[in-house]
Write a structure and sequence with these properties.
single chain; alpha+beta; Beta-Lactamase; Helix Hairpins; Heat Shock Protein 90; 3 domains
């Protein structure tokens, strides 16, 4: 055990107090404390927990105690140089009625976390570049193609004045120009809705209206003001809602959809709920898993979380929570 790269430990809880009864020599490189110091004072370890991770640390211990399940936890330790990410995996036993005992390993996973953060930064940069390209293409389609089609329609109108409005070829040309104009607007809106420049709330309102017009499903919207969000946050939340509504139309068989945007303290909360058939069993979710995975990745780009709650015959709810400094709240229909 002394040669294992991770810290092998035994941790006991008696009368509500934690105590290390064994710690291998890897304690120092893993958590910045010598094994003897851990055995002498478990508070030295607890005091090094990052303040934001302490509640989760205690909750994971409590859950393991109550349910008798393995203790799995990952969080940060404040060491002398830089914070370290550690991963704990341990089995739980009860030597007697008053004692809870965990035997496990503690690993330094900081390198993996830094690599994950680097990959996430790269993904965010690529997503930003992709959205910029979509916006450029949308402007080009709207402006340049729109101007050409407008000029073409004016020429067709002049021909109709000369040849008469009853000419079937001119009528067909007019219909084709109108169809091309509508298609250009639709493609430009799919690439980057211009209404999104007014704010996320207006963008979601437009999205709900378009969804109802296309699929005939009513969307009940409750959207707070969100015109102050940065462009990246607005776009990613809009894309999540767009993907969620697409999944509803394709798979849910729902009668109604609810779309809610709220601003609880320190957060942006987006919920998309339907009353459809719910998600299929886990083994049959491959068709929708990529959509859910993509939505989760978008939430992660914003340092947020995405939760999918579903039950057979009871619909599906997508809950997105993204941290944001503005604590204003309130909703408008």
């Amino acid at each position: 055990m002394q040669h294992v790269p991770g810290l092998i430990f035994r941790l006991c809880r008696l009368d509500g107090r934690l105590r290390f009864t064994f710690a291998s020599d890897a304690a120092l490189p893993v958590c910045g404390l010598a094994a003897a110091e851990l055995l002498r004072s478990p508070e030295a370890f607890v005091d090094r927990l990052h303040p934001q991770d302490r509640a989760d640390f205690e909750a994971s211990l409590q859950a393991s105690t109550l349910h008798g399940q393995s203790w799995n936890w990952e969080g940060r330790l404040l060491t002398d140089d830089t914070p370290k990410w550690i991963n704990i995996r341990a089995t739980v036993t009860r030597p007697d009625a008053a004692t809870v005992q965990w035997d496990g390993v503690m690993l330094n996973v900081s390198h993996g976390r830094r690599r994950e953060a680097h990959l996430r930064d790269m993904a965010a940069h690529m997503e930003f570049a992709r959205e910029q390209e979509r916006a450029r293409l949308a402007r080009d389609i709207h402006d340049e193609l729109g101007q050409l089609l407008t000029a073409l329609k004016m020429d067709v109108s002049l021909l109709m004045r000369r040849l008469g409005t009853d000419d079937p070829q001119l009528q067909s040309m007019t219909a084709l120009v109108d169809a091309a104009t509508a298609a250009g607007r639709r493609v430009a809106a799919q690439l980057r809705p211009a209404v999104l420049d007014l704010g996320l709330s207006d963008g979601l309102t437009w999205l709900a209206e378009q969804f109802t017009q296309r699929y005939g499903l009513p969307v009940r919207s409750e959207l707070c003001a969100a015109s102050d969000l940065d462009d990246m946050t607005s776009i990613q939340l809009f894309r999540i809602a767009q993907e969620a509504l697409t999944n509803v139309a394709r798979h849910a068989g729902a009668a109604t959809v609810q779309l809610r945007l709220d601003r609880p303290p320190g957060l942006i909360a987006l919920d998309i709920a339907d009353d459809g058939v719910g998600l299929p069993p886990q083994a049959n979710r491959a068709q929708r898993s990529f959509g859910l995975r993509g939505m989760r990745e978008r939430a992660h780009l914003l340092n947020g979380t995405l939760e999918c709650v579903s039950a057979a015959g009871r619909g599906t709810t997508i809950r997105v929570r993204v941290p944001h400094g503005d604590t204003r709240s309130g909703a408008r229909p």
